[in-house]
Amino acid sequence: MFRRRMLDIFDPYDLEEAMGFGRSRYTFDGEVDRSTFATVSNRAFRAHDDAKNLFLNHLATVDTSAGAVTTEIIKFHLVPDMRKRFNKFVKEYGCTATSRKITREEQDKINKTRQSLMQFTSVTVTPAAQKAYLEKNPQKKPTHASGSATPLGDSTSSTSKTRNATDAGLEASDAGPSALATLKTKKAKA
Hints:
Elements: H1 2-9, H2 12-19, H3 42-61, E1 69-74, H4 80-92, E2 96-101, H5 104-110, E3 119-125, H6 127-136, H7 177-189
Antiparallel strand pairs: 1-3, 2-3
């Protein structure tokens, strides 16, 4: 048995694992090896995709007849890496994006438990940028006469994907478990 253990010392995988290079989750100095971790979460990628879609819709429908228009269209937080990508994406279309940290009062209306402040993003669309985009994408031209539209409302750019009691149609007083049972029976009868 001792001889078998001695031979295991010279096993290249055991040696690499002992040195921190092999299949171990730990590096040589005992820290966790984060080389296989994702740099950005899937939630952040989805938020980035939502932001791009909101921007393209806004670019196609905003009224730029009076000149450049600046609108805060991204009313959810983009992590720094995704904000850089979004700014680069917006710049490719000839527009500019700026972010601002929201105030603590605004933050508390959205999420009281979050400690760090969120950043919302405004986009400036110029008439030339909109014209170039609509020439490349004629199917995106607005169908109504005025050619103006507001950005998508809070339903698509919401800060939280979960529903609260008022969104579900419940009163604040009956938002308990009994209200849920009542709501289920109403749906069953319908």
